[in-house]
Amino acid sequence: MRLTPPALGVGLSCASDEPALWEAVMGHLDYIEVTPEHLCRERIDGARRDMRYASDALAAMLARCAGLPIVVHGVELSIGSVSGWNAAYIDILDQLWSTRPFAWHSEHLGFLLAPGDAPGEVRYAGVPLPLPTTDEALDLVAPRAAALVQRYPVPFLLENGVHYLPDLPGARDEVEFLNALTERSGCDLLLDLFNFHCNAQNHGFDALEALSRLRLDRVVEIHVAGGVVHDGYLLDAHSGAVPPAVWPLVDHVVARAPRLAGITFEILDGAAERLGAAGMLEQIARARESWRLRPTFAHEVTRVAC
Amino acid sequence: MSLAEWQTELVARVTAPGHALTGPGLALTRMLQRNWRYTRLTHALPLTMRALPAAARDQLLAEYCDTYPCVSFFPVHEARGFAGYLAGLRVQPPHVASIAALEVAMIDAFEAEVFGDAAAPRRGARGPLRLARGASRIRFSAPPEQVLAAALGGHELPPVDATDHELLVAPGIAGLARPPTADERRLLDACERGSADLVEPTTVAALLREQVLVCTA
Questions:
Q1: Burial degree of A20 (CB within 10 A; 0-12, 13-18, 19+)
Q2: Which residue of A has its CA nearest to B33?
Q3: Domain ranges in chain A?
Q4: What pLDDT, in 10s, does the model give residues B69-125?
């Protein structure tokens, strides 16, 4: 079974606790994207990680989202680690599901944990790193993604990442790898079009041409965000308004992705406060313009057979 | 090269200063990793960052990141590592290690509740006492309130004096921190030595209630 999520609309991913900001934007949102780790604390005992919800942070999130659906976007699973994924993330995801079910959940396609030099040693990268597009990477990630597809009765999405490393190993390009991964695992895509735009700019490919080869029937969510230019690279910084060049990519995908369920504007808390309520509302309104391009064949809440 | 070898190599190149950087993309990735580490420290140790002498701050942060690996996305681990690094410096900027230790202790006290470490003291419990998980004794070399007020306000920190000042931090203390009484200091010193000869019931009861101490029997 492939799950088709409810078509939600426009959402926000922002860790700000600023009440005035949320008050200004809540009436303009269809859902909120939550990162569970932002609500947690962690202890490390040797190789074992233990994450627990801080009850006040969890309660504040639940109160804020009381009238809206939530979707989950994790950051610490490390699904592409040869040394094993971070099981503590699965624990907190299970707890959240039993407390407040989500419409879908997603993670980053990449890795944070890697084998160290000593046997059993695991190193933390401190910054999300990309996977090569090799068969070995596909063989590692696909069964893990398939397990997450089965874990809850809602879709699991993997997000295309941004990276600054040229010449990743592998014969496939990013699009070919994403297509193969969704096919092999049954997972869906969180298509981050700002990341896609960054990679196109930084690594010199045509974003629209690449999108024309992507399995858009697997795209359930779109991310948009703003960034900065540093040393000639466009950086994914979630630091403000979405650059004008990204919106045509969004419009292109919205018109062609039959299972698309949401467009999420991502922004860091401090950047949101700098952008202000008016600036945030402008971004949300622009995302809604794109959302309106969604074809009339979009689904309601259903399960459809593959 | 296997995927495992490739991941090990890439993480080493991004995190370890001894590894050669090949190309601007890798240098940028390392810079972003460093920036995330600084951001986590600024988030977890705001007073420490303000109190660090501006001229030394960048060098101390760089040396810390060169020496201590990043272990987690969660700021507390970076904060603990940096506080330990500051405490171990042969020449320390005055008061900064104490401020960092206090900020880490406050996080530990908060997290003791999150992880359910706090246990209600058992009535009539007898046995060896030790500092509870999430409790800390933080020594200052000037009155803590003066040190913290100066750090908060971005003012010059007070001069070091000869008196031994202390703050107790624990999950059950209102506001998480307070100075100990003289009796409490004697009792806590005795507990640290593993001696019970100075145990005084009223003082013990108060410290158990505030989750400063725990009975290990």
A1: exposed
A2: A127
A3: 2-304
A4: 999 999 999 999 999 999 999 988 899 999 999 999 999 999 999 999 876 666 555
- In the block, residue with structure tokens 């058992």: B122
The amino acid at residue B44 is A
- Per-residue pLDDT tens for A93-152? 999 999 999 999 999 999 999 999 888 899 999 999 999 999 999 999 999 999 999 999
Chain-chain contact of B32 with A127 (C-beta, under 8 angstroms):
yes
Write down the H helix ranges in chain A.
19-26, 55-64, 87-99, 135-151, 174-185, 193-203, 207-213, 247-254, 269-291
> Do the beta carbons of residue A31 and residue A288 sit within 8 Å?
no
A57 in contact with B, Cβ within 8 Å:
no
- A contact residues 177-216, partner B, Cβ 8 Å cutoff: 202
Rg (chain B; Cα; Å) = 21
The shortest C-alpha distance from A13 to chain B (Å) reads 18
Nearest to B83 by CA among B63, B67, B105: B105
Distances (CA, A) of A168 to A129, A164, A171: 11, 10, 9
Question: Which of helix, strand or coil describes residue A90?
Answer: helix
**CATH class of segment(s) A2-304:** alpha beta
Distance CA A159, CA A106 (A): 7
Q: Which of chain A's residues have a Cβ under 8 Å away from the Cβ of B10?
A: 114, 125, 129, 165
Give pTM, 2 decimals. 0.93
Q: Given a cut of 90, is residue B129 above it in pLDDT? A: no
Q: Is the dihedral of CA A49, A84, A267, B61 positive or negative?
A: positive
Where does the pLDDT of residue B216 fall: very low under 50, low under 70, confident under 90, or very high at 90 and above?
confident
Chain A, nearest residue to B37 by Cα: A126
In angstroms, the CA A263 to CA A31 distance is 10
Look at residues A230, A234, A247 and name the one whose alpha carbon lies nearest to residue A198: A234
Task: Name A81's Cβ contacts closer than 8 Å, sequence gap at least 6.
Answer: A111, A112, A113, A114, A122, B7
In angstroms, the Cα distances linking A130 to A111, A156, A160, B9 are 7, 19, 9, 13
Our measurement of the distance from residue A52's CA atom to the centroid of its chain's CA atoms, rounded to an integer in Å, reads: 22
Helices and strands (DSSP H and E) totals, chain B: 9, 5
Q: Rounded to an integer, what distance in angstroms lies between the CA atom of residue B9 and that of residue A114? A: 9
Sequence spans of domains, chain B: 1-93, 97-217
Degrees (nearest 5) of the Cα angle A30, A32, A38? 175
For A125, A131, A165, A214, B8, the CA distances from A169, given in Å and listed in that order, are 19, 8, 10, 20, 14
